[in-house]
Write a structure and sequence with these properties.
The protein is mainly alpha-helical. The protein contains four helices and three strands.
């Protein structure tokens, strides 16, 4: 179960991504290179907004595994990851001011 702070971080990230109006320059070919949310943070070719949008999408229920609500699997990535790892990466973006 998500804490209130975690839910708030996720909601903020999704709202921020929605504000961008889908104008994110991330191609479907880029997604497979990210085996873990930390790899998104370490990528030097993406802007903070692109990182946030990618992580928010990854954290969304659209990537949830059936019967395993704590896990997310972004299409094209090698394996599922814990939603907590994705949310931690989103929080790291906030701390670094990358938005």
């Amino acid at each position: 179960m998500m804490t209130e702070a975690t839910q708030s971080a996720l909601t903020g990230a999704i709202e921020h991504a929605a504000e961008l109006g889908g104008q994110i320059a991330i191609t479907s070919e880029q997604a497979p290179v990210f085996a873990h949310p930390l790899a998104v943070l370490e990528d030097t070719t993406l802007t903070g907004s692109e990182k946030r949008a990618l992580l928010a999408g990854w954290a969304s229920d659209a990537c949830a595994l059936e019967g395993r609500p704590a896990w997310r699997w972004l299409s094209g990535t090698p394996a599922p990851v814990l939603v907590d790892d994705i949310l931690a990466s989103l929080q790291a973006l906030d701390r670094e001011g990358l938005h």
